[in-house]
Design brief:
46% helix
Length: 147
């Protein structure tokens, strides 16, 4: 992609995408660290209050118990609430950069709903207001990245 970005506008877009990918990777690594660090039966919170019991997990698959039933997810299909709950086990949620990481992950996650996308926008705005990412990062929600 770097060779294809020739105009100043394209270079700026590429830089935003690189920053977004780095933030999402940080989030993903925290989520994997949480999965690798949990033992069967340990409980974490998804969303604001849903208790989730860890059953087993790997770098590709997660099995959790929610509402009395075992649920099996590929990490690419993991609901955002569960992903956020896992990653927050390994991130200092008091740090403003966490909002940017969550926003980036939600934006790039293939199963993000319109509600999840709106949450991602709010999180990115929080990160911008805290000064941890530049203001132009809101453009990733609107730009067309096709070449």
């Amino acid at each position: 992609a770097e060779d294809l970005a020739v105009t100043p506008s394209q270079v700026e877009q590429l830089n935003r995408l690189k920053r977004l990918a780095g933030l999402a990777e940080d989030f993903y690594n925290a989520m994997l660290a949480a999965i690798n660090g949990l033992g069967a039966g340990e409980v974490f919170t998804a969303g604001t209050s849903t208790p989730v019991s860890f059953v087993e997990g790997s770098s590709e698959l997660l099995v959790v118990r929610v509402f009395g039933r075992n649920q099996r997810y590929r990490l690419t299909e993991l609901p955002l609430g569960i992903a956020f709950g896992l990653a927050q086990l390994k991130m200092d949620v008091g740090e403003p950069v966490v909002a940017a990481r969550q926003a980036a992950f939600a934006l790039l996650h293939p199963k993000t709903s319109s509600v999840g996308m709106e949450r991602a926008r709010k999180l990115m705005q929080e990160a911008i207001a805290a000064g941890v990412v530049p203001e132009d990062m809101m453009q990733v929600f609107e730009e067309d990245y096709s070449l």
